[in-house]
Amino acid sequence: MELLDPRNDFLFKRIFGSEENRDVLLAFLNRTFAEAGKPPLSDIILLNPYTDKDSPRDKQSILDIRAKTTEGEIINVEMQLFNKYDTEKRTLYYWSKQYSTQLQESQPYNQLKRCVTINIINFALLPNTLYHNVFHLREDRTGIPLLDDIEIHFLELPKLDEQAVSLEQGGLVNWLLFLKGVDQTKWEVLTMNEPVLKKAMNTLEFLSQNEEARRQYEARQRYLHDEASMYEAAKVAEAKGWAEGEAKGKAEGMAKGKAEGKAEGKAEGKADAQKETAHKLLALGIELSVIAEATGLSLEEIQKLKPLQ
């Protein structure tokens, strides 16, 4: 049996975002927070659990996972299979909406709870070798936090080197290796210290054998590939337009510079000739008004050309 790819956002939500698998999501979140030095969660409430309405054919389907802790903090988990570009700005934009929409009219700002965004991405984004990066709002020099309400995680799957980690160690790495598609023969080792991961694996196997789930998965894959191709084509067109614009601007600039240089040179040459003629006429003792009429120079300009007595 060929397993489906758990990095497909539709499939990811079915595995991690359904009520029956809430314990799977909780275990994954606790491993993510533990690696960032955060205390574990005791429980979570799914705010948008998977339902049959999450159709992969509906381009407007919200396939991220939103949960709330017992303290009211909001967590958003999103799987991104392809790079849609401007990921950092897009992440901050969605985090800000998640944060600002907590308040109802007339509620005080102290009601705002911490919001955490976890982006699992199938492409390298940040200029370092870390597969797990965590961002907060800190003062540049002292590192003191302004407040702890913003927390953004990037889990970059391509940076996770299976050969450089011990599969027996457990933790977040094992969950990410499962998502990345580690060979099924290594699943048992992955679950030795991550028993809840076994439930995620069982769910993936079940969905991979389910005809309707596979059909929906393939429909979503086609949409994701089409969307990725669209973004790629847009970036290529943008780069091509920029290059063509730069080349055109350079050519026009050179032509303009050449024309201006030619005109400037011609004007300078004419001015030099006028001054030379004025010098000769001054040497002959010709009246200044006559020289001005003959050369086109002003009387003031001619006065400056007269030799000092």
Helix content: 40-55%
Rough shape?
Answer: elongated
Distance N terminus to C terminus? 108 Å
Largest sheet: 6 strands, mixed
Based on secondary structure, the structural category is: alpha/beta
Number of helices: 9
Indicate the radius of gyration in whole angstroms.
35 Å
H and E order:
HHEEEHEEEHHHHHH
Query: Biggest sheet, strands in spatial order?
Result: 1-2-3-4-6-5
Q: Show unreliable segments.
A: none
- The average pLDDT value, as a whole number, equals 87
Give the tally of β-strands: 6
Q: What share of the residues does DSSP label as strand, in percent?
A: 5-15%
Give an overview of the whole structure.
- This protein has 309 residues and is an alpha/beta fold.
- The chain has a domain of 201 residues.
- Helices cover 49% and strands 11% of the residues.
- It has a six-stranded mixed sheet.
- It starts with 8 loop residues before the first helix and ends with a helix.
- The mean pLDDT is 87.
